[in-house]
Amino acid sequence: MIAHLTGLVSQVEADRCVVDVNGVGYLVQASTRTLSVLPRPPETVRVLIETVVREDAFLLYGFAESAEREWFRLLTTVQGVGAKVALAILSSLSSGELSAVIASADKASLTRAPGVGARLAERILTELRDKTGRMPTGPGIAMPVQAAGGGVEADALLALAGLGFRRAEAHPVVARIVARLNDKADLDVVIRESLRELAR
């Protein structure tokens, strides 16, 4: 199995790239998030790989960070989520956003990914709800321990939703602010600081 490739980026397309390793070009399918951070051809790159062997194909899926690869592996355990749909989800949501989406049961954010309807989104939320605690969230993003069930955090999320902010976007910010303020987490202060951070 191939775990990673280090070579020259020779080609980048909408949903894949070619990595030239000592004269052999490997076709690597990837999310738009990973493709967007690749260097321009013909610069050197190191791409993490998930190898999928089928009867009729030997497929390579590439990732810029290990968190994205771990989420790809987890997503593809859900019935109805193949590699193409998993990459579509990871193109729409970062590792941290995906953690927040599942923790807060935000079905609407999942259905924004091509190929994910309401029924499949519901299945993803149901099957992965108890598995996200151990998942990486990517660099610099705090993992929400649990969905807000009440109190200042829940009220702040409702207020921000009313102002047009997506739950997946607001949840990590609110959770971080509430944790920082601790017992001084007044609702008005949490909303004000959340708005300031979300507006950046």
Description:
The longest helix is centred in the last third of the chain and has 15 residues, at 167-181. 44% of the residues lie in helices and 19% in strands. With 200 residues, it is of the alpha+beta class. The protein has helices at residues 32-36, 66-75, 83-92, 95-103, 107-110, 118-128, 151-162, 167-181, 187-198; strands spanning 4-12, 16-21, 24-30, 44-53, 58-63. α4 (95-103) crosses α8 (167-181), α7 (151-162) crosses α9 and α8 (167-181) crosses α9 (187-198). The chain has 9 helices and 5 strands, in the order βββαββαααααααα. A hairpin with a 4-residue loop joins β4 and β5 (58-63). It starts with a strand and ends with a helix. The radius of gyration is 19 Å and the shape is elongated. Mean pLDDT is 84; it is low at 139-149. A 5-stranded mixed barrel has the order 1-2-3-5-4.
Shape: elongated
Helix fraction by DSSP (H/I, runs of at least 4): 40-55%
Termini distance?
42 Å
Our estimate of the beta-strand percent is 15-25%
Compressed to H and E, one letter per element, the order equals: EEEHEEHHHHHHHH
E-strand count = 5
For the sheet with most strands, the description reads: 5 strands, mixed, barrel
Fold topology:
Elements: E1 4-12, E2 16-21, E3 24-30, H1 32-36, E4 44-53, E5 58-63, H2 66-75, H3 83-92, H4 95-103, H5 107-110, H6 118-128, H7 151-162, H8 167-181, H9 187-198
Parallel strand pairs: 3-5
Antiparallel strand pairs: 1-2, 1-4, 2-3, 4-5
Helix pairs in contact: 2-3, 4-8, 7-8, 7-9, 8-9
